[in-house]
Specification:
It comes from Nocardioides albus. With 160 residues, the chain is of the alpha/beta class. The protein is 26% helix and 22% strand. The protein has one domain: YbaK protein, CATH 3.90.960. The strands form three sheets. It has a six-stranded mixed beta sheet with strand order 8-6-2-3-5-9, sandwiched between helices. A two-stranded antiparallel sheet has the order 1-7.
């Protein structure tokens, strides 16, 4: 179960006990924001995309109101932004749709943090299932996710 992968990963940093589990689904940005009483932008969604050869996943953790900017993504990763198809999500990320997060992923999955998150002190990524999350500062997210770095591959509403 993917929540167990996320919890085991978070336990390595002493944070597994901080997973927020609820009856309400947090499978979408909007549902998560309502359940947590925060703005949709503060939800740190994990966008799952293919590497150039489609053999692995690039996981971009971005603000809930951000969307992938194709030109920026291609400039950063050298390939067109292609979302994982449903049957590849769990094998390539370690998590089912709705619970994809930057914790407990296979070693081949590259985790990157997007600059859209830098507007917030605290963000709320999923924690392995559609009804789990964890509250993390950006510094903690960077450390705990073991991200490869920060990128700027999204656009926000009202931007081109």
């Amino acid at each position: 179960m993917s929540i167990e992968l996320a919890r085991a990963h978070l336990d390595r940093f002493g944070r597994g006990g901080e997973i927020i589990e609820s009856q309400e689904s947090k499978a979408t940005v909007e549902l998560a924001a309502v359940a947590l009483g925060v703005s949709p932008a503060e939800i740190a969604k994990t966008i799952s995309l293919y590497t150039e050869d489609r053999s692995a996943a690039i996981l971009v953790v971005a603000a809930g109101d951000a969307k992938i900017a194709n030109a920026k993504f291609k400039a950063q990763f050298g390939t067109k932004a292609r979302m994982l198809v449903a049957e590849d999500v769990e094998p390539m990320t370690g998590h089912a749709i709705g619970g994809v997060c930057p914790f407990g992923n296979p070693p081949s999955a590259e985790v990157w943090l997007d600059a859209s998150l830098k507007r917030f002190d605290m963000v709320y990524p999923a924690a392995g299932s559609a009804n789990t999350t964890i509250a993390l500062t950006l510094g903690d997210l960077e450390t705990i996710s073991e991200a490869r770095g920060w990128v700027d591959v999204t656009k926000l509403p009202d931007t081109a």
